[in-house]
User: Fold Catechol 2,3-dioxygenase from Pseudoxanthomonas wuyuanensis.
Amino acid sequence: MIDHMGLEVADYSRSRSFYTQVLAPLGYTVVMEVTREMTGSYEGCGFSPPGRPHFWVGSGSGRSSQGTHVAFAAQTRAQVDAFHAAAMAAGAQDNGAPGLRPHYHPNYYGAFAIDPDGNNIEAVCHLPMEVTA
Assistant:
């Protein structure tokens, strides 16, 4: 349903670095970047797995998004764990350790963190627990 979304951030360089570190365990990298010279006012970068950007961070108006919730798809529960660890290492505030959230559905495995601008970010895997050989 949603093609892409973006957050306006107070400090673009800080947020670019933060999200580069936090989204790496999910396979997201910067796939596009635009400058103020290109747009006239906005600078930002778009993250996604290889391809076109799905999630943007950038600055433009001088205001930052706060209180927005963004959930990133994880392919495995281990990716959710790694996302949370990366967020904590990058200076995020813990907002919910990795674990099942059965009040959403029996296989909902997520982790939550607060980014530098006060947004609630999450990684979630909807698959049953992985079976290892």
About this structure: The first strand starts at residue 5 and ends at 8.
